[in-house]
């Protein structure tokens, strides 16, 4: 950090003092939004348009982020729902139709596909595997979708497909980290943290970055996928639980009523204020406001999480059933969250690792059930966002951490009855909808075998830059100094915003 | 601070006014002082130029971080003839540096500074942290008094120096206050500024809380506070010293400071990446606690951790220390390349050593030259070569591991046995290895037939009668059958199997999937016999002294393990399978070797050899030598010693172990930091400029450890002294604890830092306890922590130490203090990871079998100190995570404190805090059996907050419970909970 000259420092300090005085008065006036209030008061803005009447639900109040201001402009997207199919679904059975591959079915893989490649499980020379389900074109855009996703096929005119995604990792843990943090190692902030750090939250009563898990297995890289890493910890993703309390410790302990908690907090606030008169520590003031925020969250969060308030028609649209742990419920919940102003929702589904090593994941077995689980829910989400006029500024992203090979897996040199494909980082499909993305288009393509991104390859960092751009953030300026480097989500390699898909 | 800068530009009027006020005195004083490259010029380059003209981009071949390169663009003494000046002053956008799209032009003041520096001779200065600390003279405060200053010392600081520390701090403050005063004397707030002063000494109880938190990481109880207050009355100031000595002697000291260290070295009880399965490594954590409690000198503490396995005699506890390098992440996910993650672990070790002991961001150099400091790309790999030759290989079994007695009282016994085992084994193996590699003893079959099962294809190596390799897909569970016929009568003594990489040359740099002989059988069919008979094999002699698996397992059909290259192969690997009797076989006998390979690792890799050489020995003399009495005796002795050692209940600990010389790995430069693209081979070396000309290059890890822990190392003591200072004051003398490089923060008190570094390594002989003792007894640490408006306005971060530290306690201290005040925590030191209460639904490990079982309420081990909590990287313990404990994937040099509603929910609603407040209520009843509710509430207040409540505070409390219609105990619980959420509870 540059050392300020003393005099310069003096000026800055004076200004900070001014800022702080304003902040203090605002805090004590009505305790607006300080969910994102940080440690360094010199950087604190307080709320932008908060209500000063101390009303329990200050839905309209919002907080500004702390990211460098020069990185932030205006974007068409205000919020993001990121659907991650953990395990990496096969693009060749869902969106990337390859009639040529069909012809090669069961033939030995050409050596040129194998030279210089590292695979997770494929050994020696595997056989090619044709598409396992029929495909058809849908909608005005004529998008190819397999018969496993009949409902989703109906909304493809709202969807933009990228069929030429690439990543540089072929193991799940590292590749999932790349999807969310841009780095293959643990210890870098998730995109949701970068975004909330940059933009803040639209609703002061709930966290700006929330994570929904659809039961089943916890993702491999676990909390690291929504970690704030070196960014302040307030920006880490808060996991919502579909069972137990929706957020950890959000409920009062048994036998504690809201009234008695209020009384306790009132006394606590008075004591803290007296203490602050003695010590003068601004952190005390922040703490007072965090207790108020916590108190409001206790009402706001459980209400938000309760999907039973939705109409039967809406529940049916998603295939949601209140009380169940499911992807469909989480899609509906995601809509409720973004509607209430949550900035970034990260939603995980699991069980997509179709190696053909076990029945529950094989393409000719468990995979089909997984398709049923997500089909209606994805379509419902897009339809519902659209009819509520939320799709225009809500970006929905769907992807796995990589794709799957055009070859059939032969783990340990053997072929099993279960059909599976190995990990393929070189070409896979992702789709986006809403939030300023061109609807009804397909960008990029794989080769005729569906193996490499042959036309307009898109790296994960390009996707990150594009998402940030849609949110009005300049990815090259959203930086944070750590370990001697101005770190950014998109890293140090050359990065391109995919302007072709912008509406 | 981009925000502030923006703010300034929008309030230009104010800026102008003030600018006038400060530029004038600045110019006046500037005449006297020479421009310093380090302090004045370099910061300008850092801000405006290094991003292009630094180590990374080196744009236009100009690198301003380098003296020689900089000399090319300046003409010493002649700014007007310096191309650098021309470019920065240019008004032509095409020429101007920095270019307009990279940033604004340098300010007039900045260009003037650069011009004057060139005029004065353009002297280059290296970065301060790379010069050895020279002990500065302790300032004489009475001198400072007599200097012409508008502010007298006594008017701004009520305390005289208790310690040299205070003299440095006060002196620095006076200089600062004087500047501030002169700067604003023409400004309306002058009177306010003159009130900028240092605080009085804190009350004894304020200091007591602070000292408890600093030294043992827990708050003092009601009784301890009362005792201390009494002691102060009796013996005055000596009470402080006595208390500090008692606290430093408490085993709680080691527990508390261990947490600080475990953050640095990324300690966790799980493996990280991929599946994040559990890892048994807690004996290292206990080693740290013990070393701190014994006040092991920091140089020894350092040397043992970096290279304890190489120090003779190899003591158990020295080897245990090296587990620090095995805290790296392991990837157990199916289909992962063990070489890739072995390399990632070595890289993490390199980065961690530099970060923790040297405060350097050496990780930058992995891909390119350092952007700001003189480290070259190749330096990274020369350093990596010190650490690249240990036998660990990202294996799920965590090999190599050391067996450590559960009970530390048995360390000495176990150590003695272990050392005897090691010596006996090494002597035995050296003889065996000589026989294994004795060229004259081995013959190649003249011609050999090889077949493989499962469809694996084999081919004979051209021009070699006894070497074959596989072609294409190698299928798991492959068996090989190798046949040949004896042309003359032969006494058969042994078969030698050499497992080779498929591509022996390239494998040295790019390792291949390994191979293990799960079972080997030797059969013969004599010319007159109709069937094969199986010959008895009695021993397997291998090419390493401490193989991961017993090679004899290759003779056991029921077991998949045995001799081999597990799980990667880089060099040829050899074993001799010895016949129990060297029987003579007639000419025409058909020999058949059956090799089975059953291991299949990471769901992906069959450990089937890709290339094999078969030889045999017909030497009876060789057979006698391998069964020589001293070898047989040694084998017998080892068996007995191991049996004896197995009697001692032990747990495993992953440690460091060097590879035997013939199996060593070459280290290459990685192009752009990628392990798949290798450049030239390098030898172990430190950057010579840092080492200093007179110091010899270390050649192995032990010499490296000696250099890092040496008094001559310019960084080690400074970095650690600063770390301890930062834990005590909440802010380092160098704020960027992780970066002592030129892009890090400049020290606020450079002389104090060097003074402390010298004191630490020379006067205190690296004693951490002595260092902590002197700081917590200093006047600087003892100041009151209250801050005035003027203090916060001039110095919000307390950089100039005008007040005592007031910092949010670390996560562990928050939780441990609540448990201690409630008398719920267990006092046992060390042991396996603990599983305290955890909210439902949090514990969802990716792998099953990793159970979280909490001892029932009332059990002594339900609550242990926080550092014992099972640390799973992917599922951090909620309370600790909420209060900013790191997840320990990588070195965390310092924690960033947050202040969030999640914390509030945690301390209001979590079962731990509910149980603590109930227990405190019960204690209050017990403590004041006859008391009124008012008295009990005051007791709780004193117990938790550590001071007496003021009348207004008492009134607030009273008002709270006045209206509650309830039994007394629930009210007291509420009060305890309220006070466990009081801001003062969270602060030291």
**General form of chain A:** globular
Approximately how much beta-strand content do the residues of chain B carry? 5-15%
Count the DSSP helices of chain B. Answer: 38
Largest interface: A-B, 106 and 127 residues
By secondary-structure content and strand pairing, the structural class of chain B works out as alpha+beta
Described by its quaternary structure, the protein is heterodimer
Strand sequence of the main sheet of chain B, in spatial order? 3-4-18-7-13-11
Low-confidence stretches of chain B: 1-31, 146-151
Largest sheet of chain A: 9 strands, mixed
* Computed CA radius of gyration of chain A, to the nearest angstrom: 24 Å
Please tally the helical runs of chain A, counting DSSP H or I stretches of 4 or more residues. 10
Q: Report low-confidence residues of chain A grouped into runs of 5 or more.
A: 1-62
Distance between the termini of chain B: 28 Å
**Mean pLDDT over all positions of chain A:** 85
Explain this structure to me?
The complex is a heterodimer of chains A (503) and B (988). By secondary structure, chain A is of the alpha/beta class. Chain A has ten helices and 17 strands. In chain A, strands 1, 4, 5, 6, 7, 8, 11, 12 and 15 form a nine-stranded mixed β-sheet that branches. In chain A, strands 2-3 form a two-stranded antiparallel ribbon. Chain A starts with 5 loop residues before the first helix and ends in a 15-residue tail after the last strand. By secondary structure, chain B is α+β, with helices and mostly antiparallel strands. Chain B is globular and about 110 Å long. In chain B, strands 3-4-18-7-13-11 form a six-stranded antiparallel β-sheet. A five-stranded antiparallel β-sheet of chain B has the order 2-5-15-9-10, with no helix packed on it. Chains A and B meet through helix 1, helix 3, helix 5 and helix 6 of A and helix 1, helix 2, helix 3, helix 9 and helix 30 of B.
């Amino acid at each position: 950090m540059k050392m300020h000259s003393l005099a310069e420092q003096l000026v800055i300090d004076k200004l900070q003092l001014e800022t702080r005085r304003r902040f203090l008065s605002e805090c004590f006036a009505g305790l607006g939004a300080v969910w994102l209030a940080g440690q360094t008061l010199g950087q604190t803005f307080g709320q932008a348009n908060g209500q000063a009447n101390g009303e329990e639900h200050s839905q309209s109040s919002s907080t500004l982020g702390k990211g460098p201001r020069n990185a932030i402009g205006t974007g068409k997207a205000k919020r993001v729902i990121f659907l991650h199919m953990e395990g990496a679904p096969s693009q060749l059975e869902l969106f990337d139709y390859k009639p040529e591959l069909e012809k090669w079915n069961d033939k030995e893989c050409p050596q040129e596909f194998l030279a210089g490649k590292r695979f997770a499980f494929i050994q020696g020379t595997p056989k090619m595997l044709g598409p396992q389900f029929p495909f058809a074109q849908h909608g005005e855009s004529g998008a190819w979708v397999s018969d496993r996703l009949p409902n989703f096929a109906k909304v493809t005119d709202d969807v933009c497909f990228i069929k030429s995604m690439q990543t540089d990792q072929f193991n799940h843990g590292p590749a999932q980290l790349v999807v969310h943090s841009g780095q293959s190692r643990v210890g870098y902030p998730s995109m949701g943290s970068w975004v909330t750090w940059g933009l803040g939250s639209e609703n002061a009563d709930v966290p700006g970055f929330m994570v929904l898990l659809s039961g089943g297995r916890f993702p491999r890289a676990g909390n690291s996928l929504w970690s704030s890493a070196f960014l302040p910890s307030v920006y880490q993703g808060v996991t919502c639980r579909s069972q137990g309390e929706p957020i950890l410790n959000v409920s009062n302990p048994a036998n504690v009523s809201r009234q008695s908690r209020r009384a306790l907090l009132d006394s606590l606030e008075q004591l803290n204020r007296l203490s602050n008169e003695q010590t003068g520590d601004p952190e005390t003031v922040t703490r007072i406001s965090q207790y108020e925020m916590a108190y409001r969250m206790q009402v706001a969060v459980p209400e938000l999480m309760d999907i039973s308030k939705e109409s039967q028609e809406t529940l049916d649209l998603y295939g949601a059933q209140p009380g169940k742990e499911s992807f469909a419920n989480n899609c509906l919940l995601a809509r409720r969250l973004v509607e209430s102003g949550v900035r970034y929702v990260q939603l995980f589904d699991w069980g997509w690792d179709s190696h053909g090593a076990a029945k529950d994941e094989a393409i000719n077995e468990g995979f089909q059930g997984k398709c049923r689980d997500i089909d209606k829910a994805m379509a419902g989400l897009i339809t519902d966002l659209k009819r509520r006029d939320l799709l225009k500024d809500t970006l929905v992203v769907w992807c796995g951490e990589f794709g799957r090979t055009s070859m059939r897996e032969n783990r340990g040199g053997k072929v099993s009855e279960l059909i599976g494909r190995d990990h393929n980082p070189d070409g896979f499909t992702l789709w986006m909808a809403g939030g300023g993305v061109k609807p009804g288009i397909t960008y990029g393509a794989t080769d005729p075998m569906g193996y490499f991104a042959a036309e307009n390859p898109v790296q994960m960092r390009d996707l990150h830059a594009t998402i940030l751009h849609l949110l009005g953030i300049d990815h090259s300026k959203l930086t944070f100094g750590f370990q001697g480097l101005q770190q950014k989500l998109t890293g140090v390699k050359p990065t391109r915003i995919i302007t072709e898909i912008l509406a | 601070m981009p925000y502030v800068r923006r703010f300034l530009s929008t309030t230009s009027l104010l800026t102008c006014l003030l600018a006038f006020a400060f530029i004038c005195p600045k110019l006046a004083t500037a005449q006297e002082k020479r421009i310093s490259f380090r302090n004045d010029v370099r910061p300008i380059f850092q801000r405006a130029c290094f991003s292009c003209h630094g180590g990374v981009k080196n744009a236009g071949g100009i690198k301003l971080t380098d003296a020689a390169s900089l000399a090319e663009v300046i003409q010493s003494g002649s700014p007007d003839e310096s191309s650098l000046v021309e470019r920065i002053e240019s008004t032509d956008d095409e020429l101007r540096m920095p270019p307009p799209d990279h940033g604004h032009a340098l300010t007039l003041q900045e260009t003037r500074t650069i011009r004057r520096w060139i005029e004065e001779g353009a002297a280059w200065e290296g970065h301060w942290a790379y010069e050895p600390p020279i002990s500065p003279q302790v300032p004489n405060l009475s001198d400072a008094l007599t200097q012409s200053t508008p502010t007298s010392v006594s008017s701004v600081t009520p305390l005289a120096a208790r310690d040299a520390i205070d003299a440095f701090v006060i002196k620095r403050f006076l200089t600062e206050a004087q500047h501030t005063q002169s700067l604003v004397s023409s400004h309306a707030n002058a009177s306010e500024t003159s009130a900028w002063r240092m605080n009085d000494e804190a009350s004894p109880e304020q200091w007591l809380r602070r000292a408890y938190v600093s030294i043992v990481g827990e708050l003092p109880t009601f009784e301890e506070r009362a005792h201390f207050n009494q002691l102060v009355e009796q013996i005055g100031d000596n009470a402080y010293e006595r208390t500090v000595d008692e606290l430093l002697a408490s085993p709680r000291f080691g527990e508390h400071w261990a947490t600080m260290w475990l953050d640095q070295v990324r300690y966790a009880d799980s493996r990280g990446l991929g599946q994040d399965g559990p890892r048994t490594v807690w004996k290292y954590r206990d080693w740290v606690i013990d070393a701190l409690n014994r006040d092991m000198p920091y140089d020894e503490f350092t040397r043992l951790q970096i290279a304890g396995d190489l120090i003779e005699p190899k003591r158990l506890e020295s080897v245990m220390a090296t587990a620090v390098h095995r805290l790296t992440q392991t990837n157990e996910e199916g289909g992962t390349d063990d070489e890739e993650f072995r390399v990632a672990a070595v890289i993490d070790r390199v980065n961690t050593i530099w970060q923790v002991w040297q405060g350097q961001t050496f990780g930058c150099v992995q891909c390119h030259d350092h952007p700001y400091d003189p480290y070259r790309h190749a330096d990274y790999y020369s350093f990596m070569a010190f650490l690249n030759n240990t036998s660990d290989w990202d294996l799920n079994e965590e090999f190599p591991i050391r067996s450590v007695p559960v009970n530390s009282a048995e360390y000495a016994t176990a150590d003695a046995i272990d050392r005897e085992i090691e010596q006996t084994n090494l002597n035995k193996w050296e003889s065996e290895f000589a026989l294994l590699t004795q060229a004259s003893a081995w013959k190649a079959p003249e011609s050999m037939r090889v077949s493989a099962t499962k469809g694996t294809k084999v081919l004979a190596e051209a021009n070699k009668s006894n070497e074959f390799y596989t072609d294409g897909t190698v299928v798991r569970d492959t068996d090989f059958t190798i046949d040949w016929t004896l042309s003359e009568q032969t006494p058969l003594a042994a078969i030698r199997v050499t497992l080779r990489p498929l591509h022996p040359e390239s494998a040295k740099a790019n390792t291949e999937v390994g191979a293990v002989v799960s079972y080997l059988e030797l059969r013969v069919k004599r010319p007159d016999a109709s069937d094969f008979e199986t010959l008895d094999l009695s021993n397997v002699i291998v090419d390493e002294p401490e193989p991961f698996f017993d090679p004899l397992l290759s003779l056991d059909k029921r077991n998949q393990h045995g001799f081999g290259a597990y799980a990667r192969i880089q060099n040829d690997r050899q074993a001799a399978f010895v016949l129990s009797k060297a029987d003579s076989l007639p000419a025409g006998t058909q020999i058949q070797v059956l090799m089975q390979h059953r291991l299949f690792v990471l769901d992906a890799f069959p450990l089937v050899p890709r290339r094999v050489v078969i030889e045999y020995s017909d030497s009876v003399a060789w057979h006698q030598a391998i069964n020589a009495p001293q070898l047989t005796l040694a084998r017998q002795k080892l068996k007995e010693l191991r049996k004896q050692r197995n009697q001692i209940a032990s747990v495993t600990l992953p440690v460091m172990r060097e590879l035997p010389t013939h199996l060593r790995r070459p280290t290459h430069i990685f192009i752009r930091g990628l392990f798949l693209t290798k450049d030239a081979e390098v030898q172990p070396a430190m950057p010579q400029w840092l080492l200093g000309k007179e110091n010899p290059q270390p050649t192995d890890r032990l010499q490296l450890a000696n250099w890092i822990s040496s008094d001559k190392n310019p960084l080690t003591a400074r970095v650690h002294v600063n770390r301890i200072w930062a834990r005590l004051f909440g802010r380092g003398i160098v704020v960027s604890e992780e970066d002592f490089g030129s892009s890090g923060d400049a020290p606020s008190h450079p002389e104090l830092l060097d003074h402390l570094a010298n004191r630490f390594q020379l006067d205190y002989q690296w004693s951490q306890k002595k260092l902590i003792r002197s700081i917590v007894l200093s006047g600087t640490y003892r100041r009151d922590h209250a801050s005035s408006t003027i203090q916060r306005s001039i110095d919000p971060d307390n950089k100039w130490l005008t007040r005592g530290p007031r910092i949010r306690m670390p996560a562990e201290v928050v939780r441990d203090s609540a448990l201690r005040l409630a008398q719920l925590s267990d006092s046992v030191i060390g042991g396996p990871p603990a599983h305290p209460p955890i909210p439902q639904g949090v514990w969802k490990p990716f792998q099953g079998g990793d159970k979280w079982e909490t001892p029932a309420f009332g059990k002594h081990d339900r609550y242990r100190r926080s550092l014992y909590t099972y640390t799973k990287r992917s599922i951090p313990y909620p309370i600790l995570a909420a209060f900013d404990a790191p997840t320990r994937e990588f070195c965390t040099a310092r924690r960033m404190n947050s202040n969030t509603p999640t914390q509030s929910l945690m301390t209001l609603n979590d079962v731990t805090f509910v149980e603590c407040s109930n227990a405190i209520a019960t204690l209050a009843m017990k403590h004041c059996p006859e008391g009124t509710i008012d008295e009990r509430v005051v007791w709780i207040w004193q117990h938790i907050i550590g001071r007496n409540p003021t009348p207004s505070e008492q009134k607030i409390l009273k008002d709270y419970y006045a209206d509650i219609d309830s039994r007394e105990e629930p009210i007291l619980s509420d009060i305890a909970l309220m006070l466990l959420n009081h801001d003062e509870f969270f602060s030291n």
